[in-house]
Amino acid sequence: EVEKIQIKITSLGLTESRITADETIQQLFVECRLNNFLAEETPLSLPKPPGGQRIHYNYSTVINVDKEDNRAEREYLKSILLKPDLPADSLKFTVVSDPPEDEQDLECEDIGFAYVSLKEIFQKQRDIIEQDIDVFDSQDASAVIGKLTVTVEALSALRSVHEECKND
Question: Tell me, what CATH number does 59's domain have?
């Protein structure tokens, strides 16, 4: 039983919005974060796609949640399963604007957020495979600025954690 969460960030497409219109936003990368433990980001930032087109990251990463070495992550997963009102039960994907080489005084800027609920994966007993999730505008959480195609394979790890909860 391999105790890990596998994450793949396949591609990103943008709808017409302030993001596609903003010429200071040129290169994009994606960060994936589990609560406050762990942040991974795509090693490449790619040129912003025109509306309706996609950029492909095909980036995969693994979060280990085994008892021996990754107790904090595991305890966090337990808390997701045991505390129904815990707000932070999601993997958070952030689309980040990487300033162009010649504008190094500009900061990286978070332009959008997307979420995958680990609790929901467990409730539905179904991993998320190559699924389009909404990317919400960082300045207006009700506005969808694009779609991120992701895979999150967490079910077997969550089942293992759940078994352990029952045995505690």
Answer: 2.60.40.150
- The tally of domains found in the chain comes to 1
For the segment 121-167, what is each residue's pLDDT rounded down to a tens digit? 999 999 999 999 999 999 999 999 999 999 999 999 999 999 988 87
How far is it, in rounded angstroms, from Cα 124 to Cα 108?
Answer: 36
Residue 165 falls in which region: left (phi positive, over 0), alpha (psi -120 to 50) or beta: alpha
Q: For residues 139 and 38, what is the distance between their CA atoms, to the nearest angstrom?
A: 24
Q: How far apart are CA 123 and CA 80, in angstroms?
A: 11
Q: Locate tokens 């808390």: which residue?
A: 79
Alpha-helical runs (H) found in 92-143: 118-124
Domain ranges, residue 110: 4-167
> 55 near 40, Cβ under 8 Å?
no
Cβ contacts of residue 163 below 8 Å, gap of 6+? none
Q: What's this model's pTM, rounded to 2 decimal places?
A: 0.91
For the record, the structure tokens of 104 come out as 């190094």
Neighbour count for residue 165 (Cβ, 10 Å): 13
Q: What angle do CA 42, 76, 92 make, to 5 degrees?
A: 30
Q: Which residues are bridge partners to 62 per DSSP? A: 6
Q: Which 8-state DSSP code applies to residue 143? A: E
